[in-house]
């Protein structure tokens, strides 16, 4: 059977845009003699629509979109993800569904059974789990249609406990009773660099276990924090991938289930390249889907803002990115010259504006109130907030969205000023530890120096007091990041982190800092998620607690 | 049977503090000849611990606390809420449980079946629903123990759809098969002024339906946004409340199930008084539980900051609250005099610091960049951000937490400056519409003028440009708030709001503003929740979407 895998980029609630895109792909598939077009989970409305699902109006529009699409399904069938109303007397109001459309009509509805409710996922908030099993008969194939998590029966419980199976039911075991000949799984599975291998493994294991070919269609594109990487694939009944769609871009590809061992199209990419492409897609879609096209950022001469500038230029074009250089009395000369060299390498416009007059002014104004008090972190934060104010003024006046340049290590330990350098509409590298920031900078420079070498090799400093270095108050980043990874990603208790070979006092300090700064992270911009545990929606810690 | 209802204020993860409190209540109950002490849901660890539940260490500490408490349960039994590990092969790792402790040991574990996963609740993120039913036999009583939502079988689906039952199972119908003689429900049910009546109704209906007395013990105290109001109660088998514990304070009270019609202790309180007490408790616990005791806020001479100042003084004491008056060239004279009169009425300290020099300075600094551009909202935002910077400088220097003074109406339509007047560690009145702000101000003044009358009667203005009034850019607050309530709380679609009798263009504008400002609310402080739909964790909207 000729099947078109339609890996598309959808915008949440853009019914007109999404429907047009879907219909166009169906026409394209039909013109190439495909008999079935498969789209991702929640194709009609985009994923994740969150509490928009609670509006009746939203669900009505999904239904209308499905009807409109159905009119184009003659001589071709389609499988499309959409929310569907639960008409039972009790339970959550919706199902997360795949509709099978044939001869201009919805022929059957297949609902998701395993509803991820962990990390960034809250599907149980909206959906009733499916308990009714059925198969789609079509052109001599008996298709077992499942949705994303349905094939992740062996998803381990995500915590530091002894591991057990997360789910009590196996959708494919149920569907096997109907003697299927083909499995189709539609997904909206976001990218994370430390999980991207396991997806392929899980899918291949399913094909092998059930001895059935498996078609997998994933969403591509970013919706706020979540970056969907695509990488849809077709796997034969022995568990071998025979066609793999590209990562991070739209693609419609025909595969033939009867000639599964013919041409093998593979899709390998090193983790760092995936991270690079993921972030660029994340920036691009944030702007494109909100209707903005220009960005501004503060360029300090340090590695973080340099990296963000390069990524922004790649995502938006050099003509759409503006840099503000805002030196103070504590800025070293190389900060300005390094930053200027980068703007020149990239060809972006910039303004240079000293914060010295404003800083002096604040100091003077506060003399009567601060009388007799020693200089401390207050004065450092004032400098950062003056910069935040200037950046937001630029943003307000010219309509450029401010890009935040904080990295995950500093967000973790609270090494940043709320409303100062923590300001911005989108956190670009907030899910990259400092050591990953260096890796990505080196990757960018691997085909020629874009980021001036001096920016990469100099010792990190916030330059908010004389001769300040990050290492004055924090452990070295290669140590810090390992401790943070163990604590945040792996939820390893303090004692066990110490047993890994770290100094007890250092570990205690790091954990204390992470806990004490939940309130700062609570108020930061959405963070482009590239790991399996980013700050933000997927990590929910009480602000008021005994830590 | 003599039962002690122990309505206590727990701090999340404060195992030592919570355990000490529980043991002390057990001793007190025993000394008064109670044979059973009942504590709220998650008494050992506080509710809601959120992702702390994913740490094995946290669960171990809960278990230890239960063991420690058990040692004090001789000649008295106890029912206590705690997370318990699910030892089955599959499913979520934890149960939300009530342990029944007798003779120094946990005798039985009763787990929650109905797991709220809507609004601020995400219980399915952590817990497996219970499917095993059992009863606690104790001193000639057969006790059906349930947890909070378990009695809310008729919880309607929370959205604008046709209503249906949310749950597919009824725990009490199952437990009825064991012929219970008494129902006990332990809860951590947060306050919302528009739901506080329905709680009592639901509980009384349960007692009536099952013809059994019902003991209900709720948590009291605030944990970040959520304010638990207590109001524990004992209801007889005919569905009449015969003892009701106070709202918003700790209380341990003995009731006798055999003399249920004796003295009736009622607990009526008007909604506005509940809101007043709720917010004061919210502020108090935020400070007390984080170990801070001093607050600072910007006092503009307007109603919002005036109200927050009164509430803060009530919660923290006048000696712990400091006001900053920060007039600009656009501030009217009455703004300063009204603000000063309020500080004098309350006896709080203040500093007056003009933002004029800083504002002029920013304007001058930006001339080369803004050359030729007209004055617009940018300059308004700069003023607000200078104030934010000064307030945070005060906060940093003296350790006072900045209280945010935004109300729900302005947060809804984005009438506020991110990193300016939207700054702060805690949003005190962010869940009060402007019309409720006036109601609460009038309530406070009902026994004598605390808030100067001029602050209440003058037309609201941000005073960020000459002669500015809120009504220049927004509909009148009595209209605006009704539209907002319909859209936000009731999820009414645009057309239906218009049908309620509002101007179509006005409704369209308001809805457009609400949608366009999701990004601002994403970055604001936690909001003390007093309604059934507050901004923040309980309302999750995509930032990038077509609205």
Characteristic key phrases:
6-stranded mixed beta sheet; Rossmann fold; homodimer; 547 residues
Assembly annotation: homodimer
What's the CATH topology label of the largest domain in chain A? Nitrilase/N-carbamoyl-D-aminoacid amidohydrolase
Instruction: Please outline the major beta sheet of chain A.
Output: 6 strands, mixed
Shape by Cα distribution of chain A: elongated
Q: Can you list the strand order of the major beta sheet of chain A?
A: 5-4-3-2-1-14
Give the CATH class of the largest domain in chain A. Alpha Beta
Radius of gyration of chain A, CA atoms, in whole angstroms: 26 Å
Return the CATH architecture of the largest domain in chain A: 4-Layer Sandwich
Give the largest interface pair and sizes.
A-B, 98 and 98 residues
Estimate the helix proportion of chain A, in percent: 25-40%
The overall pLDDT of chain A, averaged over residues, is 95
Distance between the termini of chain A: 58 Å
Q: How many DSSP E strands of chain A?
A: 19
How many structurally independent domains of chain A?
A: 2
- Work out the strand percent of chain A: 15-25%
CATH homology superfamily name of the largest domain in chain A: Carbon-nitrogen hydrolase
Low-confidence stretches of chain A: none
Which structural class is indicated by helix and strand composition of chain A?
alpha/beta
Number of helices of chain A: 17
